[in-house]
Structures are given as C-alpha cells and as structure tokens.
Sequence to fold (368 residues):
Amino acid sequence: MSATLPPFEEIVSTHGATVLRVCRAVLGPIDAEDAWSETFLAALRAYPTLRPGSNVKAWLVTIAHRKAIDQTRARARRPLLPVSSLPERAAPTEEHRWNGELWAAMQALPFKQRVAVAYHYVAGMPYAEVAALTGGSQDAARRAASDGIATLRKTYGEGSAR
Amino acid sequence: MMTRHGPLPAIDEETIDEETKRKLHDRLVREAQTAGLLDVAYRIIDSPVGSLLLAATTKGLVRLAYRCEDHEKVLERLARDLSPRILHAPARLDTAAKQLDEYFAGARHDFDLSVDWSLARGFRHLVLMRLRAIGYGQTVNYAAIAAAAGNPKAVRAVGTACATNPIPVVVPCHRVVRSDGSIGQYVGGVEVKRALLTMEGRRRTL
Fold:
C-alpha cells in the first residue's frame, strides 16, 4: 500500500458509480444524486486526514450512510403530498433505463433491511463491515439483508428475476 | 472481486451513463470550488509537442508536465507535495490553455498568467525567475543564468533547476543552452527543446 493518498479524482472515478448505486438503493432515484454530491463533498473535505491504505469504499459508504439517515429524517418531516402534486424535479437522465420496479420495491423495505441489502449486495461489503456501519451484530446484518431479499423476491415479481 | 449473489438482477451492476457521471462530477467541482476545497485543479491539453498536463492551485499555475513525465505520476506527486484534494477541473485552466494554444500557434510571445511557485523553492526559484526574463527566440547559457542569479559557480545547480522546472514552456527553460552552443538537455526531451527553439526562430545566442 502506498504511503500517500492518491489524487481525489482517482477516488471519484474508482468509487463514484458504486456510491451512486448505493444511494439509489437506499434513497431512490430522486434523492440519490443529492446524497452522492453531499457524500463526495464531505469526503473531499475530510480526505487529507484519511489514513493512507484505508478501505476507501467502506469510508465513502459510511459517509453516504450518514447522509442517507439525514435525508430520511428530512423526508419524514416533509409533508406527504399526493404523487400527482409532486413538484417537477430534474428527472434522472437515465430513468428509463432503470429497473424502476426494483427501486420501488427497495423503497418499500424497512430502512434497516434496505441499507443491509444496499451495503452487502450493491456495495459488496462483507456483513462484518455492514454491521460495523449499521450497528448491531454481524448476524443481525445478515438477517436484515436476507429478510430484505426475501421480501424483494416476493414484491419484485419473479418474471424479471434471472 | 464481488461474488455474484444472484438474487437481485441488475442492482449491483446497473450502468451509470456518461452524462450522469459528468453531471455529478461537474457539480462536485462546482461545490468544491465554492467551499474552498479544490486545492489543485488540472486538465490535459493537446499541443504540437504532445499532450500537456496543466495544474493550478487557487494562486495560479503550479505545474505543466509533458507526456514523457507520466501524467499519472505527476498527479500523484502533486497529491503528496501540495494536497490530495485534486480534481479534473478544466475551467480553472481556461486562460492558461488559451495562452498555450496561442503560443504554439506562434501568435503569443509572452505568457500573462498567475503562477504558484510552491514547487520551486530557494535557489531554484531564483533561477526560474531569471529564466522568465529571457525573451522569445533568445537563448542564454547556463553560466550566464548562474551569474545573473547571483552565484556564478552554480552552473550545475542551474542545470538542476532547469531539469526540475515545474512549469516548462511558460517558464522558458528551453531557452537555456550550453556555453559551447550545443542545445543541452530538456525536461520534455531534446527533440521538443529543438522544436520549441525552431518554432521561436531562435535569433541569437548570448
């Protein structure tokens, strides 16, 4: 492991896509880009103090997790509006290419299950790292992820599963 | 690297299109700049002597590197020597890129750019300041620069200062040649030095 930090640009190009997928999985398409931006700006701020050789992906997902909690709380405080009256927001450019049903099914999961699924299956983090991030035991993280997957299998329709 | 768990098709391999990546990157650059977190911005431009990496701090142009210096290594050293808060952020280098284009087109003889001298301290800095005074198309020998920098015996140190010039072309170390009139070495390679001097229509050797 090199003793110095690589240019931050390298962090963005290596992990940017994974972090965006995680944000989408946890927050859905609308809030994902805001969460991504906040995550990378916070990461850039703290970057010079990161120990060289650290697990950068886990570090970024940790920051994204805190942003997701903030956004989820903010969302809970937002008045609920009927879907038809949602303000016009810049639609994600590739929404049409998304697996919309899957993302919708993800959003229906309880927060604990959703983040466990996102961090283990989307970010590829081992359950020990997921547990360190979400609190609780490794077994609890495994259980949350598998419960989440079981629900998704039911809600997400078998026809589209490979 | 990642095991295929299989239960959720597409969730971990969804493609992120280029437009989304660019949009998010642009926003990060913009917000980093506003928050004062963009310590080093860089871009890569094409030139008749190969692609050039330009890097600037908030103070000004801090580095220009030839392809042969290995741009990736140059960025790694900037991360180590200045700050790892480095992003590909071309806008900060618009003026430098424009002036270099004009220079390579033969339309510009002097650069008018803010420069950050952080990478050249002490005697090397003194030498580089002297180099800036050598006009377009002129050449000066290493000994004359040593004398002008206040240390006539430091001919070798002048050579080192030229070889480690962080901002070649803009700080014209290509205009420093040997006392015997031979061209001497160059950070971008002797061929590039010859090309620059030919382009400038080298007028006289002092």
